[in-house]
Amino acid sequence: MNDQAESLRKLVSSGNNRTVIIAVTAAKKGYGTTSTSVNIAVSLILQKKRVVLLDSGNTTLQLFGGNHSVLDTPASYSTPVSCKELLKGKHQLQDVLIQTPEGLRILTHTEAVTKAGDLGKLAVQHVRQELGKLEEADFVIVHVSPGIAKETIPFITGADILLLISEPDIHAVRDTYGMIKTIIKRIRKDRVPDMHLIINKSISDESSKTLAKRLGSGVQQFLNYSITYAGAIPLDKIVSTSGKSGKPFVIQSPVSSASLSVGKVTTHIVNKTNLNKPDNSPMYSGIIKFIDCIT
Asked: Are 1 and 138 in contact (CB under 8 A)?
């Protein structure tokens, strides 16, 4: 593994290694991680960023399910195109990426990578080499299955930024607090990602800010950790209807309240990552740490 890590570092060192890894997850299903992941990814593209989305399963593709013909795949739709094919060692990264008209590239079933070791040294080496090519992207958005599990921990640990999605009620916020507590307990302190909170299905900005403040105070007081409020995405009917159109809502209805809010969250992320600094100095560990964690 040490030889593989050194080879990966040499490969990535030829580039700028400024890729920022952003994991998106929630304490429970139904909080909107899929929609949020896709729309933030597309919003970043609209801000002229190069983006790849890694999906733990294939739920992000469902947002384009209303019009499958818009997806550009290197194989027919009857043939599975996912990270599982990458593990077989017969494909390169470019062969298993699905591209949308907006320029978003998606790799599905990425949780399979955590089992690469079961397939032998050559499989791990191949996967690490191919995933190293992600360093050409500005952002890698990782859609992580909700909750804490053996398969999800490596993706959270490997992230530079963790976007936690919650909802505007005290029960959801308590669940989110519980997840934060578990993350801090199970991940080594120097590997805990920079956490940011998004309140989805928000009723009002003021109420969401109040909930975020309460959560932040609890996390600071009892866990000795800080979480940043990234913003709220309002309850908007365009969110539920966008999947039927085969387009993310930031494309389908760019001036809707949900789209404008996602735009603000995206700007918050870009400013936080410091990618706009004139000297282009990186703030985060980037793709090397991520690959080390998940393989």
From this structure: no
CA 15 to chain CA mean position, Å: 22
Instruction: Provide the greatest CA pair distance for the chain.
Output: 53
3-state secondary structure of 109: coil
pLDDT tens-digit profile of 237-293?
A: 888 887 677 789 999 999 999 999 999 999 999 998 864 444 444 456 678 889 888
Residue 26's nearest CA partner among 178, 243, 192 is 178
| Three-class SS state of 236 | coil
The pair of three-digit structure tokens given for residue 203, joined into one six-digit string: 């009723």
Q: What is the spatial distance between Cα 262 and Cα 244, in angstroms, rounded to a whole number?
A: 19
Report the alpha-carbon distance of residue 102 to residue 63 in Å, rounded: 13
Tokens 């139904």 belong to 30
The domain locations on the chain are 2-294
Query: Contact at 8 Å (CB) between 27 and 165?
Result: no
Cβ atoms of residues 161 and 194 within 8 Å: yes
2-294: CATH homologous superfamily?
A: P-loop containing nucleotide triphosphate hydrolases (3.40.50.300)
Degrees to nearest 5, angle at CA 50 with 183 and 76: 95
On the 0-12 / 13-18 / 19+ scale of CB atoms within 10 A, 218 is: middle
What residues contact 227, with CB distance under 8 A and at least 6 apart? 164, 180, 195, 196, 197, 215, 216, 219
Structure-token pair, residue 60: 């992000």
The residue type found at 147 is: G
Neighbours of 290 (CB within 10 A): 28
pLDDT above 70 covers a percentage of the chain that reads 83
